[in-house]
Amino acid sequence: MSYNLRNKQVTALNFNSPVKPTWCPGCGNFAIFGALKSALADQNLTPTDVLITFDIGCNGNGADKINVYGFKGLHGRSIPIAAGAYVANRKLQIIAIGGDGGIMDEGIHHLIHAIRNNYDITIIMHDNENFGLTTGQETPTTPKNQPMVASPWGVIAERLNPVQFALIAGATFVAQGFSGDQKQLKDLIVAAMQHNGCSFIHIFQHCPSYNKFEDQDWFKKRIVNIDKLNGYDRTNRIKAIETVDYSNEKRYTGVIFEDKTALPFMDRIPYRKGKKSLLKDEVRVYNIEEILEEFV
Ligand code: SF4
Ligand code: MG
């Protein structure tokens, strides 16, 4: 299929796929993917401007529900695929999508290194606090002591807070959203994509099937837009870490932290300085016989 939308106004409808979602009724994924499509349209991007890398899980089942370039990887591997694509082709807008299982469990090291390297990609983490696709097992974001399908005695391990984790790893842009507020979510995705470096969005995602302990109503009582917090300074990393602690009664949404001064990965590499070409354009047949002779 070809797209010639360059001189036309793009709308969220341009990102619709003919494939019907199979998520449970009321699932937060509907709002998250709706926000994502609107965020792409707001930036007047076309489907061929965007690559999304997907994980395994309910969120990953969105892979054929949005009309952009897509790559579905192994569990926990959406981030390294996005990082590789960014290094090869910076003309694409690259988004890695994953869940609390894929990003905070199997793939947690990929999150750390994407942040350290400040790859210019956007990471969207759907956090429903369980492995939904496999019927509700615990993940690192499930509350401690919460009984789950494979741990009926209650979760033994301590809970991870993804925003604090990203901040401590040195993230240059961190936002927190809620699937019950699609409008704010759209604005956060736009802000994250506009950031020059690795942006991380943590989303509290409604999962009516397997998360009845912190459901939509539980969040609605606690969600506060961080812009309403008097004197909040989004450039203060330590203050941000304190503010989003789960021991606080509130759950703050919005842009939690931003550092506009950090250089993204490709701008830090000395031998790429001044080069305008993309790595993908430099792929060709090279004669390496001379190099190999050294080892004969
Ligand atoms: Fe959504 Fe939960 Fe159903 Fe998965 S199990 S589709 S996350 S409601
Ligand atoms: Mg999950």
Structural overview:
With 296 residues, the protein is an alpha/beta fold. It has a single domain, classed as 3-Layer(aba) Sandwich (Rossmann fold), CATH 3.40.50.970. The protein is 27% helix and 15% strand. The chain has helices spanning 29-42, 78-88, 100-106, 108-117, 162-169, 182-194, 216-220, 237-243, 289-293, and strands at residues 50-54, 69-72, 93-99, 122-127, 173-178, 199-204, 223-225, 251-258. Strands 2-1-3-4-6-5-8-7 form an eight-stranded mixed sheet, with helices on both faces. Strand 5, helix 6 and strand 6 (199-204) form a beta-alpha-beta unit. Helix 3 crosses helix 4 (108-117) and helix 5 runs antiparallel to helix 8. The model has no long low-confidence stretch (mean pLDDT 95). It binds iron/sulfur cluster and magnesium ion. Iron/sulfur cluster (SF4) binds next to loops.
Coarse morphology:
globular
Fraction in beta strands: 15-25%
Mean pLDDT level? 95
Adjacency order of strands in the biggest sheet? 2-1-3-4-6-5-8-7
Structural class: alpha/beta
Q: How many beta strands in the DSSP annotation?
A: 8
**How many domain units?**
1
CATH topology: Rossmann fold
List the helices and strands and how they pair.
Layout: H1 29-42, E1 50-54, E2 69-72, H2 78-88, E3 93-99, H3 100-106, H4 108-117, E4 122-127, H5 162-169, E5 173-178, H6 182-194, E6 199-204, H7 216-220, E7 223-225, H8 237-243, E8 251-258, H9 289-293
Parallel strand pairs: 1-2, 1-3, 3-4, 4-6, 5-6, 7-8
Antiparallel strand pairs: 5-8
Helix pairs in contact: 1-6, 3-4, 5-8
The structure holds iron/sulfur cluster and magnesium ion (MG).
Residues 57, 99-101, 128, 130-132, 139 line the site of magnesium ion.
